[in-house]
Design goal:
With about 100 residues, the chain is mainly alpha-helical. It has a domain of about 70 residues. About 60% of the residues lie in helices and about 5% in strands. It is built from 4 helices and 2 strands. The chain has a two-stranded antiparallel sheet. Helix 1 runs antiparallel to helix 2. The longest helix is centred in the N-terminal third of the chain and has 20 residues.
C-alpha cells in the first residue's frame, strides 16, 4: 500500500496493484450478477453495491476503510539509538530543553 499525493489534494492509500485487483473484482461481481439471473433481488443489490464500492475506491485511489484502520493502528515512532543520543546531547547543552541565555 502506497501513500501518495493525488490530484484532489487527498492522500491515496490504495496502491496500483490493489487498484487493478479491485477493478477485476468489481467487474467479476457485475458479471456474476448479470449472468446468473437466478440470484434473488436482495442478493443482487448487495453484490452490485459491493462492486460499486470496490470500483469507486479503485477509481479514486482512496479507501475509507483503509484510512479508518490506519487511524486505529497509529503507533508512536520507535526511538533509534541515534535519536536517543541526539536527545542526550541536546539535554547536556540545554537542560530542560531550553536554550541557554547568552
Amino acid at each position: 500500500m502506497t501513500y501518495q499525493d493525488s490530484k484532489f489534494s487527498q492522500v491515496e492509500n490504495v496502491g496500483s496493484l490493489d487498484r487493478v485487483n479491485r477493478l477485476i473484482v468489481a467487474s467479476t461481481l457485475v458479471a456474476v450478477t448479470v449472468l446468473f439471473t437466478a440470484i434473488p433481488v436482495g442478493a443482487a443489490a448487495g453484490i452490485i453495491a459491493l462492486s460499486l464500492y470496490t470500483g469507486l475506491t479503485a477509481a479514486m485511489g482512496w479507501d475509507p476503510l483503509y484510512a479508518l484502520v490506519k487511524a486505529f493502528q497509529h503507533k508512536a515512532p520507535a526511538q533509534t539509538p541515534a535519536t536517543v543520543i541526539d536527545y542526550a546531547r541536546r539535554e547536556e547543552a540545554a537542560p530542560g530543553g531550553f536554550k541557554k541565555a547568552a
